[in-house]
Structures are given as C-alpha cells and as structure tokens.
Design brief:
binds alpha-L-rhamnopyranose; alpha/beta; Rossmann fold; 12 helices; elongated; six-stranded parallel β-sheet; 2 domains; 14 strands; disordered N terminus
C-alpha cells in the first residue's frame, strides 16, 4: 500500500485533542448518572507502567460474521494480539441483530474472557449483558458501532462521527451539483454508528448551500447484501427524480453499486458512501461510482486489540486523558466519553483505488 489513510492519523489526533479540549460529558460523569455502575470500574486506577499481561483471552463480537468489513477489522485485531501473546478469537451472529449478539455475550462471560470487543448492533439492547460482564471484571471495548457509554470501558471510533456524516454529504453534493432529491441507504435501523452519521448528514443538509437538495428517504438494507440490493431498486422505482444515494455501509454501497451497474440508472444516478476498495474497485472502473470513502479497517482492529489488552492489564481504565500505547500506531489519548478516534475518512477514486488492497 503506497498511500495509506493511516498517514493522516496525526491530523485526527489533533482533532481528537481539540474536541477533548472543548469539554463536554466525560465518561466519569456519564457513569455517575447510572444508578448501578459496576463495582470493578469505580475502584479501578490506571497504572500506565503496568506491563501487558501475557495469555489474555480476547473475543471479538462483530455486528455479524459474514460482513467482509468486520472480517478485515477482526482479523487484524486477532493478528495484533499475537504481538502481546494474547489468545484472540472472533465469534458472532450471521445477522446484524442485537438479540443475536446477546447470547454470544452470555457465552463469553461463562468462558471467562478477559475482554469482549463488540461492534454493537444496538447501543442499549446489549447493555444489560455487557454490564454483567463488567461486573465480573471483563473489560468491554466497543469498536465500529458504540454501545451506551455506561456499558463499555472504551469506544474505538474509526473516525470522527461528525466528520464522517458531514463529509459524506459534501462528497455527494459536489457530484450532483448541490441539487436534487437524494436518499440514504443505511445498514440496520438501530445501528449506532450509521444513526450517528445520519444525524450529522441531516444537520449538514440543513445548511443554506444545500437548500436545493432534498433528502426524500432513509432506507435500511440491514447490512444484508440481497436486502440492500432490493432496497436500492425500490428507491429508484419509488423516486423517479432521485439524483443521488449515500450508503454509509460497506455492505449497502457495494450492493447498491451492483444493482445500479446493471440497470438503466447507470450514469443517471450518483452513488457514494463508505466502501472497501476491494469491493468497490469494479464499480469505480466501470464508472458506476466516482468517489467513496473509508478509513483503514485493519488499523481499527489493531487499535481495539491494544485497547483491550491495556484495559485488562490495568494500564488504562478508559477515562478521558489517559494514554494508550498501541504498538505500531503509537500513543493515543482517550477523548471525551471514553472514545479514541482512529483517523479521518479517506476518499477513494479511479486515480488511487489501485493503491489499496483491503
Ligand atoms: C459496514 C458496517 C460497519 C460500518 C461499515 C462502514 O460494514 O455497517 O458497521 O462501519 O459498513
């Protein structure tokens, strides 16, 4: 890889620090509103000099296992765990639902994992079981899609949620000439990450420069390839004047591209979103898609793995201001609400897509 989104990391770190400096609700204050914080958490004190424990058991619980994006993230996290002699694995459902994740959390508690890393399908529905895990001393790292802050120790966010939401609108607006009806094809209706991004998209669309753009529909493909394909077809039939679609999910944007590339809408409708270069390459080459964005999913898994180990070893507790030593990614500071931001979204197009292989 010659041009990596990772190179932009220092900028994001600055952004994260700037956001931190703005203040707001800290994880500590969020927890104090909770009537029953886990006893293990309130007593914990960070010891930055503690060595990483050997033989830690880490379990990645993605939104669903048959999502190529989640596979890249988790595989990289499992690889990273070898650097500190931990045993890491991935378990999870084949559908992106919170109820399916709950039974996995219960099993992981019984197995006595040292940390559970979860991409939550619903911020609140997984909260009860996660709290039970925390009460047993299991560290909880949310990554990709956050759980409610009181149900995890730290959230490894792939990019600033605000930056993702606003930049997706800007990208589409440039390509449709700031005019016309647009739609969003999302993942599941309860996905924390997509819903946060969509809120920022709506806020961005409220600015005067987008007065001639109208969001007509938010559709949900549930991060299921077939459903996302059908939802794309449905959107184009229901809204004949539609000019653009944003699909902020790798599953959705690739399914939408596949539908459009084989339809009469190719060349008529602008599609952008968040996709992996390997899934989107053919649709950029055949000119179905001009530009889309993402970050480095391997780094997300890597950073989450180090965060889990640092928590389980007592180096950090997840409080704002603590620093995480994250191997080749260097040192990261925990921002407000117990969040670490990986890096900014990166835009892929025909000129750079062949530089990437993930
Ligand atoms: C899909 C999932 C994931 C999201 C990416 C961009 O793979 O919905 O949560 O972060 O897209």
């Amino acid at each position: 890889m010659t041009r990596s989104p990772r190179r932009l990391a220092p900028m994001v770190l600055l952004l994260a620090l700037a956001l931190t400096a703005c203040g707001g609700t800290t994880k500590e204050s969020a927890q104090s509103e909770n009537t029953a914080p886990p006893a293990t958490e309130s007593a914990a004190k960070a010891n930055p000099d503690a060595p990483l424990k050997q033989g830690l058991k880490l379990a990645f619980l993605p939104k669903q296992i048959n999502n190529p994006y989640e596979t890249i993230v988790d595989k990289a996290g499992i690889e990273a765990a070898k650097e500190f002699a931990a045993q890491a694995k991935e378990v999870g459902p084949s559908d992106a639902s919170a109820s399916s994740q709950i039974s996995y959390i219960n099993t992981l508690i019984q197995q006595g994992q040292d940390a559970i890393l979860i991409a939550a399908n619903d911020a609140n529905a997984v909260c009860g079981p996660l709290k039970q895990a925390m009460a047993k001393g299991i560290k909880i790292v949310s990554y990709d899609s956050d759980a409610a802050p009181e149900c995890r120790d730290i959230f490894i966010n792939q990019a600033s949620s605000e930056e993702v939401g606003r930049s997706q609108v800007k990208l589409l607006a440039e390509m449709v000439g700031h005019k016309g009806e647009i739609a969003i094809l999302s993942a599941t209706a309860n996905a924390t990450n997509q819903n946060t991004w969509i809120d920022f998209m709506k806020d961005e669309l409220g600015k005067p420069e987008y007065k001639d753009m109208k969001l007509v529909k938010v559709a949900y493909g549930d991060d299921d390839d077939q459903k996302s394909f059908q939802q794309t077809q449905g959107l184009l039939q229901a809204y004949p004047d539609l000019k653009g679609i944003i699909s902020p999910t790798t599953v959705g944007v690739s399914a939408a591209a596949r539908y459009i590339s084989g339809s009469k809408y190719k060349g008529e409708i602008v599609l952008t979103g968040l996709g992996t270069p390997n899934q989107m390459r053919q649709f950029v080459k055949d000119k179905t898609v001009e530009k889309f964005a993402l970050w480095n999913p391997k780094d997300l898994g890597y950073l989450a793995s180090y965060a889990a180990a640092a928590l389980a070893s007592g180096q950090i507790t997840g409080e704002q201001g603590e620093t995480l030593k994250a191997g080749k990614l260097g040192t990261r500071t925990i921002g407000e609400n117990g969040e670490i931001i990986l890096g900014p979204p990166f835009t892929f197009d025909a000129g750079n897509i062949d530089d990437f292989d993930f």
